Recover the amino acids of this structure.
């Protein structure tokens, strides 16, 4: 009996259906794989776009270490109007005290069409420029002879910085050496750059090695002025101290001790309290303002700890907490900022009112810092302030003391910029030279004095042989 063609056709269709179902499952798997690849590629594109935006922001922002963190930067629309704040006196170039030349340009006709011009008014300007300069050269002749009683003797002149002759007979004078010290030790130019400036602007040719030796001689002669600054530092009502890393063939520490009218730099192997004692003396009677480094702890001085460092530590701990767990940190920040506000109002408040608010701050501090905190971050910050509780409001008791140690940090900044080029000093003698001349230069800048003229009297002393 022959098979029914319809059954055969049904079997073929069922086989075809099974094959199509298999193909369909394969296509579904392929679609799912493609969808997974598509999602992965979309995520990769998003990451690359974010990385490109991050790199573009980095290219437009300031480099470390002075760049503000992104979270601390204000949006562009929130920046205030550029320039001085309202109430500040204007800044402008003063009219020169002397006139060396006079030029007048008449307006006899229109410079465009040549026609007549009416309502003519003068427009006065002063143009200050540097005249062409060349060194003022003095041929100095001194004599050497023999004394029957004293041996070899020589005549000297105040202009001499050294008595070297022969190949080393061409010397720099007092003003040139003072300018070199200003450029190299205060303005941060490297030794080679200082030599180039002296040659291009003043026509003075000197090698880097020769300039280094000249700076050593200048420092030797100005050492007495440095020691006078150091002695005067110990009688100041407040001294601001800070330190940073330095290099003198091996790791050292650069210390600064500064006041509103003087700055002392010291480069020492130690970061301990012995440097503070050696600089200020054991009987220092002023207030020492510093950060919370252990070297400044347990000293027999009246002290104040920088509010800037306290506020930074509080802010870092606060930012790690959710918004509903920040009240303690807000209270501490408000306490310190209230104390700073009270200091600004010191001269506007009657003494009894000032004392009353001062006592309220003390009571508030005892209330906040007294009980042990259950939260570890809160307890850590509270313990930081408890350890310095007796120095928490020192600046309110002494009108000459500032709430922060910013003065010392600003004094360190020029040295830190110079360190980026040189890392420090190469020799012990170079270290002493840098200490002396950098201290004198910073002090002259604070006092509005001219370092060049300030050094000149010391350089006109009898020369070293």
């Amino acid at each position: 009996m022959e098979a029914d063609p319809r059954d055969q056709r049904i079997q073929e269709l069922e086989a075809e259906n099974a094959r199509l179902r298999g193909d369909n499952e394969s296509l579904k798997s392929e679609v799912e794989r493609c969808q997974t690849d598509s999602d992965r590629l979309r995520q990769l594109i998003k990451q690359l776009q974010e990385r490109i935006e991050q790199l573009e922001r980095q290219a437009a922002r300031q480099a470390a270490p002075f760049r503000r963190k992104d979270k601390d930067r204000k949006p562009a629309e929130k920046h205030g109007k550029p320039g001085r704040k309202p109430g500040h006196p204007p800044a402008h170039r003063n009219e020169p005290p002397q006139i060396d030349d006079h030029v007048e340009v008449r307006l006899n006709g229109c410079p465009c069409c040549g026609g007549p011009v009416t309502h003519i008014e003068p427009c006065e300007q002063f143009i200050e420029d540097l005249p062409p300069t060349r060194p003022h050269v003095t041929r100095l002749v001194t004599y050497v002879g023999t004394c029957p009683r004293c041996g070899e003797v020589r005549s000297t002149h105040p202009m001499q910085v050294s008595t070297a002759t022969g190949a080393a007979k061409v010397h720099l004078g007092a003003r040139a050496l003072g300018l070199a010290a200003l450029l190299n030790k205060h303005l941060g130019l490297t030794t080679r750059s200082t030599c180039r400036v002296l040659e291009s602007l003043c026509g003075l040719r000197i090698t880097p090695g020769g300039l280094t030796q000249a700076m050593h001689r200048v420092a030797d002669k100005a050492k007495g002025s440095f020691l006078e600054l150091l002695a005067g530092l110990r009688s100041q009502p407040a001294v601001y101290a800070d330190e940073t890393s330095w290099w003198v063939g091996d790791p050292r520490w650069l210390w600064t001790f500064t006041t509103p009218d003087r700055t002392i730099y010291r480069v020492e192997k130690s970061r301990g309290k012995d440097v503070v004692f050696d600089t200020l003396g054991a009987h220092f009677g002023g207030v020492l303002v510093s950060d919370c480094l252990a070297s400044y702890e347990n000293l027999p001085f009246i002290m104040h700890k920088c509010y800037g460092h306290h506020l930074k530590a509080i802010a870092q701990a606060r930012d790690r907490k959710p918004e509903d767990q920040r009240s303690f940190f807000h209270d501490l920040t408000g306490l310190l900022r209230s104390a700073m506000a009270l200091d600004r109002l010191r001269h506007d408040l009657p003494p009894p009112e000032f004392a009353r608010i001062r006592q309220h701050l003390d009571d508030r501090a005892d209330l906040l810092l007294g009980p042990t905190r259950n939260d570890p971050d809160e307890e850590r910050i509270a313990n930081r302030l408890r350890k310095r509780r007796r120095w928490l409001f020192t600046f309110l008791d002494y009108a000459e003391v500032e709430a922060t140690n910013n003065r010392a940090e600003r004094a360190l900044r020029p040295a830190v910029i110079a360190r980026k080029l040189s890392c420090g000093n190469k020799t012990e003698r170079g270290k002493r030279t840098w200490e002396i001349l950098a201290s004198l230069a910073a002090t002259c800048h604070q006092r509005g004095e001219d370092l060049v003229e300030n050094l000149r009297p010391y350089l006109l002393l009898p020369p070293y042989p």
About this structure: The mean pLDDT is 88. Strands lie at 144-147, 151-154, 238-247, 251-259, 262-268, 287-290, 302-305.
